[in-house]
Amino acid sequence: MADLRIFSYLPNPRVWKATIAARFCGVDVEVRGAPARELKGWLWDFDARPLVEEERQSLSSLARTGRVGLTGAQLFKTDAFLAAQPFGNVPAAFGPAGKVGIFESNSIMRAVARLGEATYQLYGRDAYEASRIDGFLDVSLVFARDAQIYLLALSAGTVDATIHARAKEAFAIYASGIEQALSPRRDALVGHGITLADICFAAELALFMNEHARVEQLNRLSLGKIMHAGVRSEYPLAFAHFDRLVAHEHFRPDLGPYVEKLLSRAAA
After folding, report:
1. Of the residues 89, 105, 255, 259, which has the fewest C-beta atoms closer than 10 A?
2. Mean of the per-residue pLDDT values for the chain?
3. Phi and psi at residue 92, in whole multiples of 5°?
4. Residue 154: closest CA among 164, 162, 144, 145
5. 108: which residues sit within 8 A by CB, 6+ positions away?
6. H helix or E strand, kind and range, residue 122
7. Can you give the CATH number for the domain in which 65 is found?
8. Is residue 149 assigned to a domain?
């Protein structure tokens, strides 16, 4: 049995925070899921699985109305799922018995680091490093909030100048802080090796690169890309660090193909 089971829409860089950490720490993480549009036909549970049509009818009492990302959709969430996951969102992680739920991608990643701390100290070498890592993770949540609103609006075709401006400002604040933290030419955000701060940074930036897939929509609204052609020269240390992380053996299985696909769209 896996040390941790995660249920989510896929692909999802925020889930990969945990799988990347697991490779460093030797933790067994099981991931279940499907593309977001298919999760309407899944049972949301520790034992998450696709439902056949007969089950969807017999389990109609479990139907709940989706909110963020699956707004208005009918989703089949068990009472046990909601007891373990009080906000009812994915990614949703569970301990081996399915009774303990862990929610929010940074916390799921932290759980992996704690489970495998004897193998690799992703959460820092002492209380001071751990607290500095927490600072980066907390700041990432501010950026992630505006990034999610922006990316969902792009996907739904509802983005406007206000949403774009908030996401642009959030990205600039986040990228500027990462750039400063890496000056002068550090190889990691905290201490002398890769930590949860670096994993979170790589995953959130990879997710934000989905903007590349919505260029036509931005052009129609006369809105410039936030990840424009010159952004790497504005934050050279941050993007050099991102490239190193994506190429790393523990990051590459998840982030490599994902980033390459989005960069090819940007080039096109």
Report:
1. 89
2. 94
3. -120, 125
4. 164
5. 4, 6, 15, 17, 18, 91, 93, 102
6. none
7. 3.40.30.10
8. yes
CA distance 57 to 50: 13
Contact 178, 236 (CB under 8 A): no
Estimate the crossing angle of helix 236-247 against helix 161-181, to 10 degrees.
Answer: 80
* Residue 216 is assigned to a structural domain of this protein: yes
Same domain, 260 and 160: yes
Same domain, 75 and 156: no
**How large is the average pLDDT for residues 70-96?**
91
Given a contact cutoff of 8 angstroms between Cβ atoms, the answer to whether 111 and 101 are in contact is no
Burial class (CB in 10 A: 0-12, 13-18, 19+), 156: exposed
Burial of 40 (0-12, 13-18, 19+ CB in 10 A): middle
Note if the bond before 11 is cis, omega within 30 degrees. yes
Residues 6+ apart with CB under 8 A from 176: 235
Q: What is the greatest pairwise CA distance in the chain? A: 61
Query: What digits encode the pLDDT tens for the residues 157-185?
Result: 999 999 999 999 999 999 999 999 999 88
Are both 26 and 48 inside the same structural domain? yes
Q: Quick one: the chain helix, strand, coil %, rounded to 5?
A: 55, 10, 30
Taking the CA atoms of 197, 198, 202 and 205 in sequence, report the sign of the dihedral they define: positive
User: CA 108 to CA 12: how far, in whole Å?
Assistant: 14
pLDDT at 72: 66
Tell me which residue range forms the domain holding 183.
127-267
Distance from chain centroid for Cα 223: 25
CB atoms within 10 A of CB 234: 13
Whether 147 maps to a domain, the answer reads yes
